[in-house]
C-alpha cells in the first residue's frame, strides 16, 4: 500500500469509494471535481496495486493557520488494516508543512469507530452539533492543536452567519451582543434592523455596507459600551464609487453619523488600533469588530467586518460571519490569523483606511 496525492484521473475511483463507504451525506462527482481542481487543500489516497482503498481530504483556510479534515473514507473490505490512521498521519504531516497550527473536523455522534480513531490521533471535542446531519443525527466538532493552545474563551462567543451578502457588520454585532448581553438572541429580523441603523445607504446597485460610525451608533443604542478607532476622518468606502450623486449621499450619511456619535458621547479615536491595545481590550473581557479586506482570504478586494474573539503572541482569532459555499461553521469560528497577516488585512485601499469597534 502507498499514499499519494490524488489527481483528476482518480475522480471515478473516488466517487465509487464514496458510494461504498457511506450511506448518506455523500460527495458527488461535481464536489470531488471541485476538491481536486479548485479547492484550497489536498486530497490524499491510499492504493494497493492501482486499487483505491481509502481517501482523505484536507482543506486549508486561506489567510489563516487553520486546516479541516473534510472527508475520510476507507473501502469497507479494507478496514482493519490501519489505512485510516495512515491517512490521518499523512494529513497531519501535510498540515504542519503548510504552517497550520490546528486541524478541525466534524463527525456523527454515533460513529464510535471514527470518534475513537480521532481520539487516538489527539483530537478533542470542542462543541456538540445538534441535528446536524442529513438524517437528523447529532454530531461533534473536534480539534487537534498541532502547535500551542487555543486561547481560553475563544470558542465561547456564539456564532451567527450573515443571512445576506451585505450584512457582515450587523452579523458580527449580533455575535457580540449574544456574548456580552447573555439574553440576546440573534435573528434575521434583528440583523436587517441593525443594517438599516448602520448602513451608509443602499442605492439599487453599488455600495450597501455599514461604516464603523453607523455600527458604533447601533452598538451604543443596544446597550454596549463602545469606542471607535478609525485611521482618519474621511468618508469611508467612497473610493470605489464612481457616481457623484451616490458619493454625495454617502458623504451626507457619514456626516450625520459623525454628529450623532458626538451627541451620544461615543469616543471616536483617530488612530489605527495597535495590536497591544487590542490585546489589552480582549484580555479585559471585551470584543472587537474589525474591518478587513477579503483579498488575502478570497482574492477579492472587498471591505468585510469580522469579530475578533481572542489573541495570543502569534495569532488573532476571528469569527467570520461569511460562510462560503462548501464551508461550515467549523471553518469560520476562532480562525487563527497570523498577526502580520491580520495587520495587512485590516487596511483598506490606497489610503490604507482602518476601522475597529472596541465593545464591552
Task: Describe the structure in your own words.
This protein has about 350 residues and is α+β, with helices and mostly antiparallel strands. Helix content is about 35%, strand content about 25%. The strands form 2 sheets. It has a 7-stranded mixed β-sheet with strand order 1-2-3-4-5-7-6. It has a 7-stranded mixed β-sheet with strand order 9-8-14-10-11-12-13, sandwiched between helices. Helix 8 links the parallel strand 8 and strand 9. It starts with a strand and ends with a strand. The mean pLDDT is about 90.
Proportion of residues in extended strands: 25-35%
- Beta-strand segment tally: 14
Form type: elongated
Please estimate the helix content: 25-40%
Gyration radius, rounded: 22 Å
What is the first-to-last residue Cα distance? 56 Å
Low-confidence stretches: none
Strand order of the largest sheet: 1-2-3-4-5-7-6
Number of helices: 12
The secondary-structure class comes to alpha+beta
Q: Average the pLDDT over all residues and give the rounded result.
A: 91
Order of helices and strands: EHHEEEHEHEEHHHEHEHEHEEHEHE
| Main pleated-sheet profile | 7 strands, mixed
Helix/strand layout:
Layout: E1 2-5, H1 11-21, H2 29-37, E2 41-48, E3 51-60, E4 66-74, H3 83-97, E5 102-108, H4 112-120, E6 124-129, E7 139-145, H5 168-180, H6 188-198, H7 212-221, E8 226-230, H8 244-264, E9 267-270, H9 275-283, E10 287-293, H10 295-298, E11 303-311, E12 315-319, H11 329-332, E13 335-338, H12 339-345, E14 355-359
Parallel strand pairs: 4-5, 8-9
Antiparallel strand pairs: 1-2, 2-3, 3-4, 5-7, 6-7, 8-14, 10-11, 10-14, 11-12, 12-13
Helix pairs in contact: 1-2, 5-6, 6-7, 7-8
